[in-house]
Specification:
The chain has 215 residues and is an alpha/beta fold. The protein is built from eight helices and eight strands; from the N terminus they run E-H-E-H-E-H-E-H-E-E-H-E-H-E-H-H. It has a single domain, classed as TIM Barrel, CATH 3.20.20.70.
């Protein structure tokens, strides 16, 4: 069954603990935390302290997506904060293999995220080293964007590469996910759906129903 990873980028920051506790109780598998620094993307969101605080209120997997540049100097802070998965954009660092090793050596799952403008062939040498690959179906930086259907081919290609090479990464989809495109993602090989405004703009009483409908 596909895993649902609600993205707190779309949450009410004044009710963040309440939102996360509700997502925890209503069937979320992961909690997706978008970290933006105003350098890799033109927006600023959370830092390691938010991860550390959320670690205290949920036992769900904290799926930390770093949209930052540089990357290396911040890895240890996010490790120590309690991240379960740390994913970054390989083009944001000169030595992505070193970043993956740092994360893996900390006994945390390492992942890479694929910007819509990045070609899979340019980073396929990293696939055997990671446990998660995020396919970005919006331009990174802001929530509430429309799903880029042309990125679905990457999901399909990653699934084929995984099968042909016996790789063990999860394929996650991040950006504009809703009930209309969730099935397309699943049918093409996705394992995890990062869901933002489609879920978190709704009343908390509806979280369980919406999460189940996306599966």
């Amino acid at each position: 069954m596909i895993k649902i990873s609600p993205s707190i980028l779309s949450a009410d920051i004044l009710k963040l603990e309440e939102e996360v506790r509700s997502l925890d109780l209503n069937g979320a598998d992961y909690i997706h935390i978008d970290i933006m620094d105003g350098h890799y993307v033109p927006n600023i969101t959370f830092g390691p302290n938010i991860v550390k605080s959320l670690r205290k209120v949920t036992s769900k997997i904290l799926d930390v997506h770093l949209m930052i540049k540089p990357v290396k100097q911040y890895i240890n802070e996010f490790v120590e904060a309690g991240s379960d998965i740390i994913t970054f954009h390989p083009e944001a660092d000169d030595n992505p293999e070193e970043i993956i090793k740092m994360i893996s050596d900390a006994e945390i799952k390492a992942g890479i995220a694929i910007h819509p403008d990045v070609n899979i062939a340019d980073i396929d040498h990293l696939f055997s080293k990671v446990q998660q690959i995020i396919v970005m179906t919006v331009t990174p930086g802001f929530g509430g964007q429309k799903f880029m259907h042309e990125q679905v081919q990457k999901i399909k290609d990653l699934d084929e590469i995984r099968k042909n090479n016996n790789y063990n990464y999860e394929i996650a989809v991040d950006g504009g996910v809703n009930n209309e495109n969730a099935k397309i993602c699943k049918d093409n090989g996705a394992d995890v759906l990062a869901v933002g405004s489609y879920l978190l703009s709704q009343n908390q009483n509806n979280y369980n129903e919406i999460i189940n409908s996306l599966r």
